[in-house]
Structures are given as structure tokens and as C-alpha cells.
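Hi there. Long-time user, first ticket. I'm pasting a complex I've been working with (about 286 residues overall). I'd like to know whether the download I got is complete or cut off, because the file seemed smaller than I expected. Thanks.
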Amino acid sequence: MAEFDAELDARGLNCPLPILRAKKAINALNAGQILKIIATDPGAVKDFEAFCKQTGNDLLSSEETGGEFVFSIKKG
Amino acid sequence: MTKRLKATERRATILAVAKILFADKGYHGVSVDQIASRLGVSPAILYQHFVSKEALFEAVLTDIAGKRESYVEAVVQEPVDFASVLVRMARIYVNSVARDPDYLIMEMHSVLEGSTVAKQFFENRWKSFSDYIEFNLAELGKDGKVNAVNPKAASLMFQGMLREALYAKCIYKSEQYRDFDLENLVHHLIVLFLNAIGYREKPDRQRKLA
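Hi, the file is complete. Here it is re-exported in full:
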């Protein structure tokens, strides 16, 4: 996991809440800064891919460890 | 069903046929023999893919649950105030269920069956709404943008309204609501819900203009 500028804990929440909270957290960042998100909803994997594609942000990594999904998004 | 079907295709066909029969008659109303008969295969073929009727029923529920709606569109669009996102989520969900009402019937059966997987299926499908409403009402309540309501009770109220509208329009096809199309009915219910919780947050766009 690369270094990050902000972190969002979305464990236990079903989409779209993690996406919505990520969107608001990214809005508070400057371009090029990185948000790390931890989620447990398996649907988050596809949803964050679609979210980044549609919003012009860069999904740097998407990893699963022990039932948790960790995403790293760079603000575009 | 021909013997040339690949295992994955055969499995998908079994799930599709089983879903129709389970939705029609419930778990206890359908036998493995009936499912096999509808597929035109022997029960032994079914048992090659699913060790039991229960395993087949669980696979049907998992298959439907796996096709859960994506609400990314509801969140990407603006404005993202509580009510605007909720309206877009409800529209996505209602359109999805209206396209495949068997899901609703399976949901009703899943409540009655009482198995763990059925319970998980039922809860998981609605969790997007309960998480969204409960989290946001707790936040809005702190800012005085809704009345002092219990977020869990409000969430249950919303789910009940939406579910009942879907039952009335997609399953019962009730004459009583024939003047409403489904989207219009849901819109009215959401307005009632927002009034009931005393929602007074301005949409983001309006707030920027204010």
C-alpha cells in the first residue's frame, strides 16, 4: 500500500455509502493526493472501479486481505 | 437440455429453472424430481451440480443476491444531499425489481423459509438502504436537519413503504393503485417519508446558490 493523505473506514457498510463517503473525502483533497479506503462489502470492488472510471480519479490499487478490501484512489 | 452443454451453462440453466419453480411454489412446494422433470434431465444430473435441494435453493438465492444493483450512478450524479441520492437509489432498485419480479417472490419465500442463507439474502438486499438511511439520519440529526427520529425505525419505515409499493404494483398488480405508475407511487412515498422525518436539508446545488 502506497502512502496516503487521507483514510476512510467503510467497514461493515454496504454500497453506495462507502462510495458516497469516498466521493466527499476526495472532494476535500487536492489533485494528486491519495485516499485509502477500507471496506468489507464485496460489491465495493466493482463499484470503486466504476466510480473511478466515471469521475476521472485514478484507482491505484484494489486488494483483498482476510475479507477486507483496501482501495487506494488518487484524486484526478 | 443436451449433453453438450458445458458444466457452467448447465448449472446456469438449472438455477434459472429452479428460480422460476421456487418463486412459484416456495422451497417446500418443489421437489428435485419436479425441477429435473422441467429441465428434461434425471435427478442424478441435478445432484452432480448440487448435493441437495437445500444447496440448490441456496445457490439460487446467492445467484440473485450476486446480481445486486449498483448504486454508483446514484452517487456520481449531483446533487448528493440525502434526499437526492435516496431518490436515485430508489429509482435504480425499483426499476431493477420491476424487471425481475421473481426476485420479490423469492424474497417473500426466503422470509418464510427461515434458513440462515434466506435470512442473509433478505437482509443483504436491503442493507444498502438501511446503511444509507441510518448513517445519514444520525449525521443529519446532529446538525438539526431532521427531527429527532430513531434512524433504525426510520430506515425500517422506508423499506416497508418501498417493499409494499413493489408488492402492490409488481405482484398483486392491485387495481387500487392503477392510477399510479410505479415510479410515481414511489416518488409520493419518498415525499411522505421526508416529511415524516422532518427533513430540511437544502440540496447541495441550492445551497451553493443560496
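A couple of notes from our side: DSSP finds two helices and four strands in chain A. Chain A touches chain B at residues 13-17, 19-20, 23-24, 43, 46-47, 50-51, 54-55 (CB under 8 Å).
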